[in-house]
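hey m, so remember when u said the tokens were messed up on ur end? i reran from scratch. heres the input so u can diff it against urs
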Amino acid sequence: VAKEVLLGCSEKLYFNYGILKILLGVEKKNIIALNAYKKIGFIEYKHSKKNKRSFIKMFFPTSPHHRISIGTAQFGEKYGITNTSNKTSLKDIKSIIKIAENKGIHNIDNAIAYGKSDLYLGQVDVRNWDVSTKIPPIPNNCSNLKNWLNKKFKESLIRLKLKKIDTLFLHNPNDLLSSNGKDIYRIILDL
């Protein structure tokens, strides 16, 4: 029942007043409350390990836009059959991110193969975003899968200036069907 009431109230707040989030603070020690809020849809803000607060800040997205992701292929390279211009400038990327954030959009779909997109995202600060990224297709002649996957993933995190990402995809899911598929799966679980 709590989730239905919260959804009803959040829609009214969004459509009538333009309110994008309901914020609350929960004591770190109150695990039962934290889990209950997460269960009904509250999302924990990402904090650095230096967070000395005695509470955890959480939000509930009131906007239907929280299901939308910003695709970043054109952030790092000229992409798309209808693209007649070059890649998106850093200035335009900052504007896109700011507009999306103001509209309640907090999801980014990125890939290591998108040129410098992860570098640009790191420059505009996406620490409070849910970032997904894709591992590029694994080369056939890859002699050390673990090192290759670790290196690609960690280099991307450095460029993104993130400690973790929310979702990791394989750009070529057929990699899992290769003779190394089981090894790839095990390695990815440890990233």
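this time it looks ok to me. Residues 62 and 120 are 28 Å apart (CA to CA). if urs says something different then somethings off w ur setup not the seq
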